[in-house]
């Protein structure tokens, strides 16, 4: 006498089949080099599709008058923080001023005179800390500098 019911047999069979299917579909582990290569390709494709980058080519963007003998080219501005270039003509002077936040400066071309004692050549870096008085900036022969800090405002000049 068979005491099992057809529904019980189907359930047991269905569970066995599901287990067999799950086992058959389980992925085999990839060699580390293959997994790394796949990950790299995926990230490269994501990066190529991203629109979250800002690029300003050397010949693009506008130079605007800033101070006598000084022009500005804004590269990026967000939340009161600006990345920009200043081009100083020979003899141009930026008067003493304060920075509401730290400001970083890199001399790209020429030489930048900071006050009487500091001369920075191309490749030189200068950090002006928040709330410190900055000596006048000038250039005898002309200079182009990259700056990142607070958006410059007339009220920062002293």
Overview of this protein structure:
The structure is a single chain. With 158 residues, the chain is α+β, with helices and mostly antiparallel strands. Helices cover 24% and strands 36% of the residues. The protein has two helices and eleven strands, in the order ααβββββββββββ. Strands 1, 2, 3, 4, 6, 7, 8, 10 and 11 form a nine-stranded antiparallel sheet that branches. It has a two-stranded antiparallel sheet with strand order 5-9. The protein starts with 5 loop residues before the first helix and ends in an 8-residue tail after the last strand. The model has no long low-confidence stretch (mean pLDDT 86).
Q: In a few lines, what is going on in this structure?
A:
This protein has 158 residues and is α+β, with helices and mostly antiparallel strands.
Could you outline the blueprint of secondary structure elements for this entry?
Layout: H1 6-25, H2 32-49, E1 64-67, E2 70-78, E3 81-88, E4 93-94, E5 97-98, E6 103-114, E7 118-121, E8 125-128, E9 133-134, E10 137-138, E11 143-150
Antiparallel strand pairs: 1-2, 2-3, 3-11, 4-10, 5-9, 6-7, 6-8, 6-10, 6-11
Mean pLDDT: 86
* N-to-C order of helices and strands: HHEEEEEEEEEEE
Q: Give helix % range.
A: 10-25%
Number of helices: 2
| Shape, principal axes of CA atoms | rod-shaped
State Rg: 32 Å
Ends distance: 105 Å
Structural class: alpha+beta
- How large a portion of the residues is in β-strands, by DSSP E? 35-45%
Number of strands: 11
User: What does the main sheet amount to?
Assistant: 9 strands, antiparallel
Low-confidence stretches: none
